[in-house]
TrEMBL record, chain A:
It comes from Eucalyptus grandis (Flooded gum). Residues 14-274, 302-471 form the Aldehyde dehydrogenase domain. InterPro entries: Ald_DH/histidinol_DH, Ald_DH_C, Ald_DH_CS_GLU, Ald_DH_N, Aldehyde_DH_dom, Aldehyde_DH_NAD(P). One of its GO terms (molecular function) is aldehyde dehydrogenase (NAD+) activity. GO terms for cellular component: cytoplasm. It holds the Pfam family Aldedh. Belongs to the aldehyde dehydrogenase family. The keyword ATP-binding does not apply. This is Aldehyde dehydrogenase. SUPFAM superfamilies: ALDH-like. The active site is at residues 222, 257. One of its GO terms (biological process) is aldehyde metabolic process. Keywords: Oxidoreductase.
Automatic annotation (TrEMBL), chain B:
It comes from Eucalyptus grandis (Flooded gum). This is Aldehyde dehydrogenase. PANTHER family: ALDEHYDE DEHYDROGENASE. One of its GO terms (molecular function) is aldehyde dehydrogenase (NAD+) activity. GO terms for biological process: aldehyde metabolic process; response to abscisic acid; response to water deprivation. GO terms for cellular component: cytoplasm. It catalyses: an aldehyde + NAD(+) + H2O = a carboxylate + NADH + 2 H(+). Keywords: NAD, Oxidoreductase. SUPFAM superfamilies: ALDH-like. Residues 8-443 form the Aldehyde dehydrogenase domain. Belongs to the aldehyde dehydrogenase family. Pfam families: Aldedh. InterPro entries: Ald_DH/histidinol_DH, Ald_DH_C, Ald_DH_N, Aldehyde_DH_dom, Aldehyde_DH_NAD(P).
Length: 514, 495
């Protein structure tokens, strides 16, 4: 069983280089290319997840204080679904795709063949350490590659569990785990890989891409950003708030790349509030008329109510919230909260417990745009609300910053929806919900600009780890002498017609008429 | 060239203006994209004579070659883009499971923003405008930097493009490595580079600073594997196609040209005889006078190619041609038989009219020969043998693989054109051009009317069970659980 890295010997450049050489040998032998191998490995991942679900839950609780339901659903179940989907589709994905050829290359037939890239490196993140390690591995295996996985050292229990389990369940001639931190990752990044798949932040993403550049290695970078939620009037606020809450605090207590980072809404919610015939909206709309100069308070009230329903009056004690992963991030988050410009803007929460590394769900209202909290990805349980005069301004605000991984809008206004969809650039968009696009296999999951390069999930995972080779079959017949020297003007005329692709044109040229 | 003296602040200001133009939304409109593509068509038609002259001056290309490889191919590509534009812009619906009631999902392509296209000197018009077609169809603002090694073509593009395209959103910046480096320091939303692997590494290293995605169209040594063909007709066609691919397209200065030939020993001498005969037919007794062989682009490359033949062991392996004229930068189409494998001519991409033939004991050995070298942009195999065909496809790796012909794959709009490993990353042509300059944005729309109430905390086993059933798409299970008829089972596996 050689899946584990021996902790006694340092994993340096030499060790990394011989690891890659070993896997190249395994890949060259052709083992990983067969359908049987890919299928057996995917089934292995499935069995592994089934048989060790409680171990996974325990590791995630140790690393992140993650509630069992989140571990089971957002990590184990999603990984299982990923395996199952790949198993279901694998044969179809592996088949060559026939393409049409035109008169220009007649007679010929052509197809696109998917082939594995070779030996790939997957570096994963700490917030969904099980899923974000293995979901890319599913794609890499489905595409027929040999894989080295480097889990995040910031989630050590999961990292150790992955090393142990992959060693037991997978073919260790072609699938390996390397545990470690910066030195080990650096040693790995010095090697020549056929692809590097990285999930994490932009700073390290640049380091990964620069290392890959030396070997002309293509990369997928799943990074992050500030995913905004635009909230319009005239909607069912209770449902909207619930969806925002579960997408934020229900996802690793806000430590998720596509969690809502901040809300943008209008200072001035007009009488459009009465659009929907829901009793509580009618009641609140009267309240809204009375307090129409401060209508956002109404929203905050709904948010507060729902938060209390979900997490109780003492959220620091709630078992349904992950803790902050470590003291570095705890310090970082409290710094965001305690900045002068912002500390008086807290309208809900703000409590923290350093011994438990826990910060209560916190809402801030009207934060200045040049505050720290509005200039870095929060990745924690703090939700600032930005206010604007007209909601359309929110699009300019979003587009003036780095492109985020996701952007959300809650509205029933068709024009606003279309404007949002067509003008806001982000990895993915969701109208009237948050984060759910993650679970749709048919949608590519990835960023743009600062939020990343490339995408995966479903078939996009298979494609991310494949080379799409163009194959053309020509017959020895059907050659046009005009292709070859000696070049003449007559040939030029014919060539124009042939490339134009029209039979009439060709006939005309042949008879000297064009 | 004037652009070299441009001050850095001026370049940055120009680029910022282009970004403003992009942000105004102009380039996103379908009408704008169509007008740009039509503008390119007009440019190609109205300036045809000028283009022929520039290509002849820069590379000694005959108009037939220029049309076949550059102008004609571009016209085909523009028409293909105009035809597909509306369809491409509308994106694709994504299939959702039935559980997702009143929800729709779609993949919507959007432009990346301000993109940089750096092109190469060997097909200076083609390699500048082909990526431009994709960038414009996808709705981007574009800066094009043509190669300074084809100065007439570079000037032509710089002068013509502002007349046919939107000069606020499409600019040509001329210059050499200095300008290239300054451009690479800027932040782009995409960089598309055609050229050598050495510069390719610089491009992607610069891109890494800004997390800019890149497409690199590089090169490699593209082998032509010639099986022993029994029919003399087939043999003639194979030889004609290989020689055509090697010598009659930019005198071998082409990334997907045939670099060298692999053949079985027992077939090699008759192959060479046939080649000699074909060479005379295609290029006459005096190839330099034939106008059918382009010249070497400049002195630097001429000397590079000449030095490949300096090694006495290489020189002695010449079986045809070999003459050179430094003044006219002309190298005669040359064939070599089994030069030493360690010589530079067998290690570096030749990019010139020198064709080594390497003999093997068995033609199947060509697989190992190819695999022991960096992955090429293309592999060409001339054979009628089915098992060999299948082996070549499954056991070798390259950007593309073509049977019984060469180079033609770049004309097929439905095939991705790009490399792998040392020969490049990313691809284009046809819709792949549009895609390479787009971001595929995932868009999901949900209704307020439907929700699964058990989505929300506080959590309990009941909700957990419901989730298990949902993830299984076990609709009956959901109903039973809600009705309280299915027991929640904490130990149940197989969610």
């Amino acid at each position: 069983m050689a899946g584990e890295d021996k902790k006694q010997q340092p994993f340096d450049s030499k060790a990394a280089s011989s690891l890659v050489a070993e896997l190249r040998g395994a890949f060259a032998s052709g083992t990983t290319r067969s359908y049987q191998w890919r299928e057996s490995q995917l089934r292995g991942l499935l069995r592994m997840t089934d048989e060790h679900e409680q171990d996974i839950v325990a590791a995630l609780r140790s690393d992140l204080g993650k509630p069992e339901l989140e571990s089971v659903l957002y990590e184990a179940a999603m990984l299982r679904n990923s395996c199952k989907f790949a198993l279901k589709e694998l044969q179809r994905w592996m088949m060559p795709e026939k393409v049409k050829t035109s008169l220009t290359t007649f007679p010929s037939s052509a197809e696109i063949v998917s082939e594995p890239l070779g030996v790939v490196l997957i570096i994963s993140a700490w917030n969904y350490p099980y899923l974000l390690s293995l979901d890319p591995v599913v794609g890499a295996i489905a595409a027929g590659n040999a894989v080295v996985l480097k889990p995040s050292e910031i989630a050590p229990a999961t990292s150790a569990l992955l090393a142990k389990l992959l060693g037991e369940y997978m073919d260790s001639s072609s699938i390996r785990v390397v545990e470690g931190a910066v030195p080990e990752t650096t040693a790995l990044l010095e090697q020549k890989w056929d692809k590097i798949f990285y999930t994490g932040n932009g700073r390290v993403g640049r380091i990964v891409m620069a290392a890959a550049a030396k070997h002309l290695t293509p990369v997928v970078l799943e990074l992050g950003g500030k995913s905004p939620v635009v909230v319009d009037s005239g909607i069912n606020l209770q449902i909207a708030c619930r969806r925002i809450i579960v997408g934020k605090w229900g996802n690793n207590n806000g430590q998720a790349c596509i969690a809502s980072d901040y809300i943008i809404t209008t200072k001035d919610l007009a009488p459009k509030l009465v659009r929907l015939p829901y009793p509580h909206v009618l009641v609140f709309s009267l309240y809204g008329v009375v307090s129409c100069t401060l209508p956002y308070l109404f929203q905050v009230d709904v948010l507060k109510n729902e938060l209390e329903t979900f997490y109780g009056k003492n959220p620091l004690e709630s078992k349904d919230l992950s803790r902050i992963v470590n003291s570095d991030h705890f310090t970082r988050l409290t710094k965001l909260l305690d900045e002068d410009k912002v500390s008086k803007k807290v309208v809900y929460g703000g409590e923290r417990d350093p011994t438990k590394l826990q910060i209560a769900p916190t809402i801030l209202l009207d934060v200045p745009r040049d505050s720290l909290i509005m200039n870095e990805e929060i990745f924690g349980p703090l939700l600032p609300i930005l206010t604007v005069d007209k909601l359309e301004e929110s699009f300019d605000i979003i587009n003036s910053g780095a492109k985020p991984l996701a952007a959300y809008i809650f509205t029933n206004d068709k024009k606003l929806k279309e404007h949002f969809v067509n003008n806001v650039s982000a990895g993915g968009l969701v109208v009237n919900d948050t984060t759910v696009h993650l679970a749709v296999h048919a949608l590519p999951f990835g960023g743009v600009g600062e939020s990343g390069i490339g995408a995966y999930h479903g078939k996009f995972s298979f494609d991310a780890f494949s080379h799409k080779k163009a194959v053309v079959y020509r017959s020895f017949m059907g050659d046009a002498a005009i292709r070859y020297p000696p070049y003449t003007n007559g040939k030029l005329r014919l060539m124009k017609a042939l490339l134009g692709g029209s039979i009439l044109g060709i006939l005309r040229a042949l008879f000297g008429r064009s | 060239m004037e652009d070299e003296t441009k001050a850095p602040e001026e370049m940055e200001r120009e680029l910022e203006e282009m970004r403003e133009c992009y942000r105004s939304g102009r380039t996103m409109e379908a009408s704008w994209r169509k007008s740009q593509l039509k503008g390119l068509l007009r440019l190609l038609r109205e300036r045809e004579e000028e283009i022929f002259r520039a290509l002849h001056q820069d590379l000694g290309k005959h108009p037939a070659e220029a049309y076949r490889d550059e102008i004609g191919s571009l016209i085909k590509s523009v028409n293909y883009a105009l035809d597909g534009l509306k369809r491409w812009m509308s994106g694709n619906k994504a299939k959702l499971p039935r559980l997702a009631l009143l929800t729709t999902a779609k993949i919507l392509p959007e432009p990346l923003g301000l993109v940089l296209v750096i092109s190469s000197w060997n097909f200076p018009i083609g390699l500048s405008l082909e990526p431009l077609i994709g960038a414009l169809a996808a709705g981007n603002a574009v800066v094009l930097k043509p190669s300074e090694l084809a100065p007439e073509c570079s000037s032509l593009l710089a002068n013509a493009i502002p007349h046919y395209l939107d000069d606020k959103a499409v600019k040509v910046i001329q210059g050499g490595p200095g300008i290239g480096e300054r451009l690479l320091l800027q932040k782009w939303d995409k960089i598309f580079f055609t050229g050598s692997a050495r510069i390719g590494r610089k491009v992607i290293a610069a891109a890494a600073e800004h997390l800019t995605p890149v497409t690199l169209e590089l090169g490699g040594k593209c082998p032509a594997v010639i099986d022993t063909l029994s029919s003399s007709f087939d043999r003639k066609v194979a030889v004609q196609r290989v020689l055509g691919a090697k010598f009659s397209s930019s005198a071998g200065q082409i990334c997907i040209g045939v670099d060298y030939v692999l053949v079985e020993k027992k077939f090699s001498s008759s192959l060479v005889e046939l080649m000699k005969m074909m060479m005379k037919k295609m290029f006459g007794e005096n190839p330099r006078e034939s106008q059918s062989v382009a010249r070497i682009v400049n002195k630097h490359h001429f000397l590079r190619l000449r030095s490949l033949l300096l090694d006495p062991l290489v020189k002695s392996s010449i079986v045809y041609g070999g003459s050179m004229d430094e003044e006219s930068l002309f190298i005669e189409p040359t064939i070599l038989m089994d030069p030493p494998l360690q010589a530079a001519i067998m290690m570096d991409e030749i990019f010139g009219p020198l064709l080594p033939i390497v003999t093997l004991n068995k033609i199947e050995d060509s697989i190992e020969f190819i695999n022991s070298r960096p992955k090429p942009l293309a592999i060409y195999v001339f054979t009628k043998d089915e098992p060999l065909r299948r082996s070549m496809v499954s056991k070798t790796s390259s950007g593309s693989i073509v049977f019984n012909d060469a180079i033609v794959q770049c004309l097929v709009d439905t095939l991705p054109f790009g490399g792998i490993g040392e020969s490049g990353m990313g691809r284009y042509h046809g819709k792949f051009s549009f895609d390479t300059f787009s971001h595929q944005k995932a868009v999901m729309r949900r209704s307020f009317l439907v929700d699964v109430w058990f989505r929300f905390p506080p959590w309990n086993d009941h909700k957990l069970q419901l989730f298990r059933s949902s993830y299984h798409y076990d609709y009956l299970g959901i109903v039973l659980t809600v009705l309280g008829l299915k027991r929640t089972n904490r130990a149940s596996k197989g969610i």
